[in-house]
C-alpha cells in the first residue's frame, strides 16, 4: 500500500484462498457404522481393517441432519511446508489459514460419493486423530487397479492410515465456512 506523502510500503500477508474441490453431503440417512459398511460393500467397494477400527470407535459420529460440506484438496507444500512437517504443525497451519479438520463421517461419505475418483488417486482425510486412538488415525480414500490370479480390477477402497509425526502429504480438509453448522447437528 502506498501513501501519498511518503514511500512507506506496508505488506499485509494474505492467506491463500483454497478453492472448493468437492462438496459432499453428510447426514444422508445412514445412521451408524454398520449402515456405512453395508452401503460401501453394496457399492462394490472395499473397507480396510483399520477403517473398520475407526468406524467401531465411539468417536465416529454421523450427522443427524443432512448438510453440505465443502472440501478442499491441499498438499502440505501448499500449506507452506516444503519438506513435510509434524502433524501438529500441519493442523495448526491449516487452522490459521481458515481450514478445519473434517468430521469423521467425511471419510466414508467421500468414499460413497466420489464415484468418479481417478485410478491411482489416494486421498488422506484431515481429521482429528486424538479421539480415534487406534493403530490408524485417519481415513484414506483410494482407487487403484489391482491384478490378482491373472485378472485385473479397479478397486475403490475406504482404508485408514497412520498419520505419522512427520508427513509430506495431506489431501482433504473442510472450508471453515461450510463447517459452521456441523458441530450442532451431531
Q: Mean pLDDT, nearest integer?
A: 73
Shape assignment: globular
- Strand runs, count: 10
Please give the order of strands in the largest beta sheet.
1-3-10-5
How many structural domains does the protein architecture include?
Answer: 1
Q: Give the uncertain stretches in residue-range form.
A: 9-14, 162-169, 178-186
- Succession of helices and strands: EHEHEEHEHEEEEEH
- DSSP helical segment count: 5
Residues in β-strands, percent = 25-35%
Rg (CA only): 19 Å
Q: Could you describe the largest sheet, including whether it forms a barrel?
A: 4 strands, antiparallel
- Distance, first to last CA: 45 Å
Structural class: alpha+beta
Q: Level of helix content? A: 10-25%
Give an overview in words.
The chain is α+β, with helices and mostly antiparallel strands. The protein has one domain. The protein has five helices and ten strands; from the N terminus they run βαβαββαβαβββββα. A four-stranded antiparallel β-sheet has the order 1-3-10-5. Strand 7 and strand 8 form a beta hairpin. The longest helix has 10 residues. The chain is globular, with a radius of gyration of 19 Å.
List keywords for this structure.
single chain, 186 residues, alpha+beta, four-stranded antiparallel sheet, four-stranded mixed sheet, 5 helices, 10 strands, 22% helix, globular, disordered C terminus
Q: How would the blueprint of this fold be written?
A:
Elements: E1 22-26, H1 33-42, E2 46-47, H2 49-56, E3 67-73, E4 85-86, H3 87-96, E5 99-100, H4 106-113, E6 122-124, E7 138-148, E8 151-161, E9 166-167, E10 172-175, H5 182-185
Parallel strand pairs: 2-8
Antiparallel strand pairs: 1-3, 3-10, 4-9, 5-10, 6-7, 7-8
Amino acid at each position: 500500500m502506498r501513501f501519498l506523502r511518503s514511500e512507506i510500503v506496508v505488506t499485509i500477508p494474505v492467506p491463500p484462498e483454497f478453492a472448493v474441490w468437492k462438496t459432499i453431503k453428510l447426514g444422508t440417512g445412514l445412521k451408524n457404522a454398520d449402515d456405512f459398511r453395508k452401503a460401501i460393500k453394496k457399492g462394490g467397494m472395499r473397507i480396510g481393517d483399520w477403517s473398520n477400527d475407526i468406524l467401531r470407535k465411539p468417536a465416529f459420529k454421523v450427522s443427524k441432519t443432512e448438510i453440505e460440506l465443502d472440501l478442499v484438496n491441499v498438499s502440505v507444500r501448499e500449506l507452506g511446508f516444503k519438506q513435510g512437517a509434524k502433524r501438529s504443525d500441519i493442523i495448526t497451519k491449516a487452522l490459521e489459514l481458515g481450514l478445519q479438520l473434517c468430521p469423521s463421517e467425511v471419510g466414508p461419505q467421500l468414499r460413497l460419493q466420489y464415484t468418479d475418483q481417478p485410478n491411482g488417486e489416494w486421498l488422506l482425510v484431515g481429521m482429528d486423530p486424538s479421539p480415534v486412538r487406534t493403530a490408524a488415525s485417519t481415513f484414506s480414500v483410494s482407487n487403484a487397479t489391482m491384478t490378482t490370479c491373472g485378472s485385473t480390477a479397479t478397486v475403490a477402497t475406504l482404508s485408514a492410515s497412520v498419520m505419522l509425526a512427520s508427513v509430506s502429504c495431506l489431501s482433504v480438509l473442510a472450508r471453515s465456512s461450510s463447517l459452521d453448522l456441523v458441530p450442532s447437528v451431531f
